[in-house]
Amino acid sequence: MDNEKSFIALIEKSIKKNWDADALTDYKGVTYQYKDVARKIEKIHILLEESGVKPGDKIALCGRNMSHWGVTFLSVVTYGAIIVPILHEFKPDQVHNIVNHSEAKLLFVGDVVWEGLDESAMPNLEGIVQINDFSVLVSRSEKLTYAREHLNELFGHKFPKNFRKEHINYYQDNPDELLVLNYTSGTTSFSKGVMLPGKSIWSNIVFASKVFNMKPGDRLVSMLPMAHMYGLAFEFLFEFCSGCHIFFLTRMPSPKIILQAFAEVKPTLVIAVPLIIEKIIKKNVLPKLETPTMKFLLNVPFVSDKIKEKVREQLMNAFGGNFYEIVVGGAAFNQEIEAFLRSIEFPYTVGYGMTECGPLISYEDWKNFKAGSCGKPVDRMEVKILSRDPQNIPGEIICRGDNVMLGYYKNEEATREVIDEEGWLHTGDLGVMDAEGNITIRGRSKNMLLGPSGQNIYPEEIEDKLNNMPYVNESIVIQALDGKLAALIYPDFELAFANGMNEKQVEEQMEANRVAVNAQIAAYEQIARVKIYHEEFEKTPKKSIKRFLYQEAR
């Protein structure tokens, strides 16, 4: 076996090295040390073994972020079984379908998720275990029932003279072996099972270890869903393999809770999606800078520098004041917010990836980061732009290397559509790449629209301008059946009503926004009409809008 690319070896090494250190904490709750995690892993191994689970069997896991979620994940992979993480935000039918499609033997589930599920819709499961306390909710196997009832006794038999780190001997994975089966939550289609081999996870972790340089004892707040590869790889696995102390926000992470956690934990690194950063800045920072007095002072040379320095300091403190950089990924960054962060020399960077790469494709340290881009190709990955002029004319971004998936589970057709004969993964994203290797994304190829004379229209670029208009929360630009562009807008009703506006005035403002944006864009990109939505658009866990749900609005 190629030990050099063993993800499981990284876990084993970290547990042994950091035995007495704090590992996982449920925010405002219990803390487990690395040795506690190791003990729990051993108990779940016994449960799996006694239940008849074999290496290569599928085990599904669905619940909110918490320490026991992390423990379950580590237990399954170190046993040699294939983990199927399922987003707790998925509808019950989606969870049922994924459990059935993946052929999972067991389901580990959180208490909130379990309330909505129907065990009869998952007939092939041998059992359902609650992750909160590892109690058995449903057992269709006498072996499972016996194993859970006698677990402490079986553990005592196996380790009669105390459990020590010398006892740890985890499954030895092959780098090309399927380890994680992760179902996508795509913006353009329904879920597909992404088959990630051990080397993909290993490669992402090793790269992160090199560029972030996190040390044992460093702290991190985990707020992105761990069932999504971005949150899993960079808010849990990489930190765990580095000996860090991870704090899980077990509740829905509102900006208020997030800021409170940052203030208390003071993380060494912040991993986020644009929406979280944008909300914090739009609500807490920009209003203070948009007063007439402040606008005037920002144009006074020396005074302006002092204000920007103060704003930077306040924003740094809002995120705990102890971090090296904020890594933003998962979706496009609002240009206005990015320009503002740039102007105050805030330490942020934007990465790019997808579930199919476990997830990383490109990244650059904030000190060398080129504004508007999403970094350079990461180690062990090649990236190309399918364009006759890749530096100036957008083309599809393709990549290959250790991070790339094996394919889609039980879907050869979909696999062939995205991975060509030479092993290049076709991302479906459009972009350019400069001479230094910086990648700039222009949009999704599936989202690209054709203008009246065949011009390429990138709706994301128009949306970015719309989202900077007064009282706009978010928007989608689509092509109507008559070929004209329509803007679907979810206004910031809360702010508008707080400022004394009524619904008719909000409508008039959105129409004024349409006219203002049209004045900034080409004739073939003009928005013909606006449709107002009263609820925010449905999102993926990366907080990208599920665009395919809104095409009927044409």
Topology:
Elements: H1 7-17, E1 22-26, E2 31-33, H2 34-50, E3 58-62, H3 67-79, E4 82-86, H4 92-102, E5 106-109, H5 111-114, E6 127-130, E7 136-139, H6 142-149, H7 151-158, E8 178-183, E9 193-197, H8 198-212, E10 219-222, H9 229-241, E11 245-248, H10 255-265, E12 270-272, H11 274-284, H12 286-289, H13 292-297, H14 301-318, E13 326-328, H15 335-343, E14 348-350, E15 352-353, E16 360-363, E17 376-377, E18 381-386, E19 395-401, E20 407-408, H16 412-418, E21 425-433, E22 439-444, E23 449-450, E24 456-457, H17 459-467, E25 472-479, E26 485-491, H18 493-498, H19 503-518, E27 527-532
Parallel strand pairs: 1-11, 3-4, 3-5, 5-6, 10-11, 12-13, 13-14, 26-27
Antiparallel strand pairs: 1-2, 6-7, 8-9, 9-20, 15-16, 16-17, 18-19, 19-21, 21-22, 23-24, 25-26
Helix pairs in contact: 2-3, 2-6, 2-7, 8-9
Describe this structure in words.
The protein has 554 residues and is of the alpha/beta class. It has 3 domains: 3-248, 3-Layer(aba) Sandwich (Rossmann fold), CATH 3.40.50.980; 270-322 and 325-444, ANL, N-terminal domain (Rossmann fold, 3-Layer(aba) Sandwich); 449-553, 2-Layer Sandwich (GMP Synthetase, Chain A, domain 3), CATH 3.30.300.30. It contains 19 helices and 27 strands. Strands 4-3-5-6-7 form a 5-stranded mixed beta sheet, with helices on both faces. A 4-stranded mixed beta sheet has the order 2-1-11-10, sandwiched between helices. Strand 25 and strand 26 (485-491) form a beta hairpin. Helix 2 (34-50) packs across helix 3 (67-79), helix 2 (34-50) packs antiparallel against helix 6 (142-149) and helix 8 (198-212) crosses helix 9 (229-241). The termini are far apart. The mean pLDDT is 91.
